[in-house]
Design brief:
- Keywords: Cytoplasm, Heme biosynthesis, Iron, Lyase, Metal-binding, Porphyrin biosynthesis.
- Its EC number is 4.98.1.1.
- It is found in: Cytoplasm.
- It catalyses: heme b + 2 H(+) = protoporphyrin IX + Fe(2+); Fe-coproporphyrin III + 2 H(+) = coproporphyrin III + Fe(2+).
- The chain has about 400 residues and is of the alpha/beta class.
- Helices cover about 50% and strands about 10% of the residues.
- It has 15 helices and eight strands.
- The protein has helices spanning about 20-30, 40-60, 70-85, 105-115, 135-145, 150, 165-180, 200-205, 210-225, 250-260, 275-290, 310-320, 330-335, 355-375, 380-385; strands at about 5-10, 95-100, 120-125, 155-160, 190-195, 230-235, 265-270, 295-300.
- Strand 7 (about 265-270), helix 11 (about 275-290) and strand 8 form a beta-alpha-beta unit.
- It starts with a strand and ends in a 5-residue tail after the last helix.
Amino acid sequence: MGRVGVLLLNLGGPDKLEDVGPFLFNLFSDPEIIRLPFRWLQKPLAWFIASRRTKTSQENYKQIGGGSPLRRITEAQGEALKEQLHYLGQEANIYVGMRYWHPYTEEAIALLTQDNLDNLVILPLYPQFSISTSGSSFRLLERLWQEDPKLQRLEYTVIPSWYKEPGYLQAMAELIRQEVDQFSDPDQVHVFFSAHGVPKSYVEEAGDPYQQEIEECTALIMQTLNRPNPHTLAYQSRVGPVEWLQPYTEDALKELGAQGVKDLVVVPISFVSEHIETLQEIDIEYREIAEEAGIHNFRRVPAPNTHPVFIRALANLVIDALNKPSFKLSQAAQMKKRVKMYPPESWEWGMTTSAEVWNGRIAMLGFIALIIELVTGQGLLHMIGLLQ
């Protein structure tokens, strides 16, 4: 098989407080994250949002030590994966490529092209596929492949999603069981799955399979857990004025509190590493919401990180991928029917979904223009005298 490499893909995160602004700019510059009808608006809007959110985000990162642990944990996962593959008889070089911060995907590609690999496995550290996570990285990689003849000669395969991997399900079940068993009445503990949300339009318009895969994954984990605990699935981390997948985590917590739930274990289902969404959003913000709702016994399941069963699952994925027909980036980006990457939908008259979406986008752009004008004191409304 020759020299084998494994490229681990992840989001990335600011290493220190000074990195937060540039990281947010990179994040919101991605058209898979904010879908706009005009591409030239992407970077100005990204700058505006990042400028408005930097201070608040820095305060959040201060609560977890001043930076994201994502790089450190991902690199530790890579080392553990390399050791596990060696144990299973497969030597491999591991590369970490982050989408929005160092080490960038482009940096990882530069390293692996220098190593003269014969085979590469591309493994996103997102169990479930979404156009805003794995899809964004696949789109970037597809462009890099088109631009580099050396990459085009490299044999590679993509693992687009892997939420059904038995070892991953077993690792999640073990982590949940450890937390549930800390309660006096384990079988009555409510298991609360909190997944990172995406805008509802991604699913309904763009055909993103993310919601379906999250729901299937939740059911499979509960089946693997094989206990009678009640469970709920909700979605966290929404931003902006558009509708996201529901129920929202904060609303679901309040509803469970109103129903009299006292014992709760939160499972960060779409995260395999600790970072801002687990350490700050769940552990601090959602814990406070739960306690105010009367849920006083609140525990959170750790992310898999370098859990041995989880690392074995990743190793199994790599070995299986090497022994199967290759799966290409173009296939990964279109793996489900109707999946489109930030599609510029045609506008329609009438009370249609497309018309509503476009009207919402136009209204959003108008609102942004108004805010910028109020902040800068310059613009069309000032010119015609409506604002002084």
